[in-house]
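Human:
I keep going back and forth on a fold encoding question. Comparing notes only helps if you start from a blank page. Show me how you would write down a chain together with its backbone fold. Write it directly below this note and I will take it from there.

Assistant:
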Amino acid sequence: MSDRAPRTVERQLPTEESKDLLTLVRDIVEREIVPRASEEEETGHFPRETFSLLSESGLLGLPYDSGHGGGDQPYEVYLQVLEELAAARLTVGLGVSVHSLACHALASYGTPGQQAAHLPAMLGGGLLGAYCLSEPASGSDAASLSTKAVRDGDDWLITGTKAWITHGGVADFYTVLARSGGAGAGGISAFLVPGDAEGLVAAAPEKKMGMKGSPTAQLHFDGVRIGDDRRIGDEGQGFAIALSALDSGRLGIAACAVGVAQAALDGAVEYATGRRQFGRPIADFQGLRFMLADMATRVEAGRALYLAAARLRDAGLPFSRQAAMAKLFCTDAAMQVTTDAVQVLGGYGYTADFPVERYMREAKVLQIVEGTNQIQRMVIARHLAGPETR
């Protein structure tokens, strides 16, 4: 079975403009992304040309201010665009989410001068970003990061290693969290580092079980010199900036997960209604019908959960707990739905002739990135019962 465009989802969109936007996205998906998705993932091709097209089409800065080149779209709309892109190819959907995450610090905490100098190119000028928080020895415990930023006159020298960086080695800019002060969360600052900065070297991309077209690599900073005008926010404010970005980023991952699950469900339904055994379609058998029903319910529930959290964000209300819930539920649902899709296809589901095996491999990483699902459970529990006693 060849790749095909995802089934059209009936969406409740707030404006005519947003409906036209989704039409544009679906056209790009059908023409430019779906036809090459499986082949390019198999060969590990990074679709830079696709990101350039998305930038030209105004799709890389959707949730940001139009005054700086963004799209002025609410998260409710932006996330549904992500879902459509991820359903076509997770490398693209997740890549857009990561780019948006990388823009968040400057868009939310930068000075007007910094924003005017950098945001137009970042949001609509063809640049692609990456977000540098994790390190080899500090993943879930991000406040213990050790990459250092040391003052040198009016500059900073950044030294250390970042790990698991999506777009590592291909990004045009990196939002980097580094230790500019003492131990703990209060000693971390945020910096905007050009991708071609002297002393910045990317390691060979990791060899992953899925998302082979999306480079994930360590970044080595060897005394990378940047001006103080590229420090974002106050000294010591970096960890708070990082956490605020991750709340929004987790919604992006949730939307991507629902997109992958939707694609897997579509593939399973298509196969089950076309494959015949014992003289009738296998979709006639109750065991499979119930499985498809459960898969569809998980997809719809996940979509409702991430949209509810997005609407809270759009209204300016607290949404951290709901973002953690959406990330947790949607990514666990994607893992279950894609696994079930492979089961529906039987032996064929285990072959690369059908994309459902790729969806299953890709779904796994969504339970890990931007805070493992174990961390999401800790976040939710803290909102319910308060911090853990020591």
